[in-house]
Amino acid sequence: MQQPSDHEYNGVLLIDKPSGITSHDVVDRVRKCLKMRKVGHAGTLDPNATGLMLILVGKGTKISQFLMSKDKTYTGVIQLGLETDSYDIDGEVLVQNHPAPIDSGVIEKAMAKFIGDQYQKPPMFSAKKIKGVPLYKHARKGKEVEREERLIRIHSFSLTQNDFPDLHFEISVSKGTYIRSVAHDLGQALGTGACLTVLRRTKISDFSIEKAIKLDDLPSMASNMIKSRLIPIYQAVPSHVLS
Predict the structure, then answer these.
(1) What are the extents of the domains in the chain?
(2) Contact 25/46 with Cβ under 8 angstroms?
(3) Residue of 16, 25, 28, 46 marked catalytic
(4) pTM (two decimals)
């Protein structure tokens, strides 16, 4: 059986990433399914996060930088009273307590103060590189590295359900925003401490999780079905990007 050549698939595939694997794992599995080498992505998700990834196929890899700059929307759960070194549930527990319930109105007021432009420092447990070395490698050795704050924007941050101490939320942010850091900072603002326990990316600009293919479904899809789900490059980016 002749293998498809790289030019047979070109564009953007919307993939629903499951929990427990890295973004690189997703790319690797798509490569194997499509029998292609030229596969990339336009933005990572932490291993335990789920949701929308833009997988770039063939000539689609050329528009990576443009798509990575898009705004993103997430849903998730923040647990109050629990602090970890990574700001999420995967980290080492630093503080654990049982805070008294907080009224939803108080929480919503605290969330509202996060909306707008601000500077955010990347957490130590992140893939952000300083002098070529990912921060998490320093963090695993117990080292704290000086890192520069960067400008981010939080467009919206809302409480969707209060199951205290678990806060269900939706947030829309600019490129490079660490939701783990937002969770941590909200805990500080409320005086309880907090960490991120669940995260799911639901939108990247106009691309929605509702139109994504579950990664586990991809191997059983026929070639013509996959091609029908590929978003052409000219639809994914404005025409001036291609000129």
Answers:
(1) 6-69+205-242, 72-204
(2) no
(3) 46
(4) 0.89
